[in-house]
Amino acid sequence: MSCADALSCNQRPCEIEVAGLRRSFGKTVAVDDISFNVGQGELFAFLGPNGAGKTTTINLLTGLLKPDAGEVRYHGELFDPKRLNVKQLIGVVPQHNNLDRELTAAENLLIHGRLFGMRGSKLQQRIYTCLEFADLTEKRDTPAGKLSGGMKRKLVIARALLHQPQILFLDEPTVGLDPHSRRKMWAFLRRINQEQDCTVFLTTHYIEEAEALADRVLIIDQAKLVTGGTPQELKAKVGNYVLDIYNEEDIQNEFFEQRPAAMQRLEQLDTSVRIRETTLEDVFLKLTGKRMD
């Protein structure tokens, strides 16, 4: 089964359809003929190591880059980034915070809203609503440069939600955050997906993030799609259980569909071993031959 088949819209209306997308920079191929679909209301993770092509893909999907080949469709309509209705459809959170440090939290949202043609009481109400949703109401008059890293990240996300997009793109949303802040951000993203009726498309190189958050995961490595599906489907592809076999030099892994088979193999070995459930890290290692960076 191809990645495109594995990532059909899974009985949901298709919101994003990507076919044959390719982009090069000189002789370097950054995205190599990728195809996949995202269903309406999904929390979708694009997982891969640094340099795999994740940011290039998100830039192609949001119109910051033009593809060399292939196409992107939203709700079946060919994507033209020059059309205002498409820009209204999507919200974008870049990998690095691009707030105006001198402006307050509310002023950063105000400028963004005006760029989308929002004015008057409607804009002020949306600013209040988005700051409240992001738990930043008490920081509305604080300059963005004085906010903590986690608060800055939430403000960038609140800004992207201001015009009420149907799809939210986030490029490495938790990079640079400490583990506690990262888990708080996961809860925030779940709320966006569930309470804002918003499809969430995020890129990440944190395997535990994709495993904890995503309805479906697409794995990319060296510009090519490796595999895709729900976290459980991906684990089942290589085996639901792993037997770690320890020796003097390294650890070898053997995969089994059922635990009894792993137990039977364990009894045959005269060395240190461990049985555990398969993780997405194991899937990546099994299918690419290397660990995630």
From TrEMBL:
UniProt keywords (A-Z) are: ATP-binding, Membrane, Nodulation, Nucleotide-binding, Transmembrane, Transmembrane helix, Transport
* Cited Pfam families: ABC_tran
Question: GO MF annotations for this entry?
Answer: ATP binding; ATP hydrolysis activity
Keyword Membrane tagged: yes
Principal location: membrane
Q: Where are the transmembrane segments?
A: none
Q: Which PROSITE patterns match?
A: ABC_TRANSPORTER_1, ABC_TRANSPORTER_2
User: Where found?
Assistant: Membrane
Q: Which domain of life is it from?
A: Bacteria
Q: A GO CC term?
A: membrane
| Protein name, entry field | ABC-2 type transport system ATP-binding protein
Keyword ATP-binding listed: yes
Q: Supply the source organism for this entry.
A: Malonomonas rubra DSM 5091
Q: Which InterPro entries match?
A: AAA+_ATPase (IPR003593), ABC_transporter-like_ATP-bd (IPR003439), ABC_transporter-like_CS (IPR017871), ABC_transporter_ATP-binding (IPR050763), P-loop_NTPase (IPR027417)
- Taxonomic path: Bacteria, Pseudomonadati, Thermodesulfobacteriota, Desulfuromonadia, Desulfuromonadales
What topology does the record note for this protein and the membrane? Multi-pass membrane protein
Q: Where is the ABC transporter domain?
A: 16-247
Tell me which family the UniProt entry assigns to this protein: Belongs to the ABC transporter superfamily.
